[in-house]
Amino acid sequence: MRSRHWYRDTGLQARMFVVMALLGALYLFFMGALYAAGVNFLFILIVAGGLLLVQYYFSDKMVLASMGAHTVSPEQAPELHTMIGRLAQQMDLPMPRIAVMDTEMANAFATGRNPKNAVVCVTTGIMHRLEREELEAVLAHEMSHVKNRDVQVITIASFFATIASFIMQWGMWFGMGGRRDDDRNGGVPAFVIVYLASIVTWIVSFFLIRALSRYRELAADRGAAVVTGAPSNLASALVKISESMARIPQRDLREVGALNAFFIFPSFGKGFSFGELVSTHPSLERRLAQLQQLQRQMEGIA
Hints:
By secondary structure, the chain is mainly α.
């Protein structure tokens, strides 16, 4: 049965539209710079496009393998399957695959290119630390990511940023394939134009994509709060997860740091001091404030 509580997050859709429009303008500038420099853009497109397709179609398998997670059957994890199955029904979603990662770190994530190929993964640490209602709220957060197709959107949004990063690493080599007219005429070498355009594209897209990532976390929090009808459960879960991070060795946190964008809570331990501007997640305080406001609204206080 489709949940009466689920709703289209117009705020998320508007933010995605604005960020994607800005990224589109940025990428048009980038392609224009490549064309003006005479770079063999088709070759770059084939290589970077191939990498993107591999990431898009096999991201679930690559992420699970890199995290050492394994899928579990209903017989192996009946409670997880029951909770996620109920959430999938409420949110009008296909039943995702369920995976478990054996680690003391309390966390969870969702991956997969679309709802039909989604995977929801939880750690053994989060199952040990959270109460049943709190775990259900975390799972609702991850299912909200699936509902909003966040993995798909971020992957597509990152396409030209991937190309820019690729050129930044191999800029000198690609520059040799460009026109050398500028060199002979005493102008700026083609590879310099390409390299500078790649740097600008990567930096600006980095901040835009991080902004989109932070908002999708807030949207997933809202989705979980609405579906479960209990924002306080997710707030309590986030606090417990945050507190547990301080007890995990920094070495273990660094090992999974590359996948922070997937987690419900970033694996930064004690002493994390990066500003929210460069973070994949909004601050805990901001998330708790939003959930508290939702709780008041549901109780008719605000």
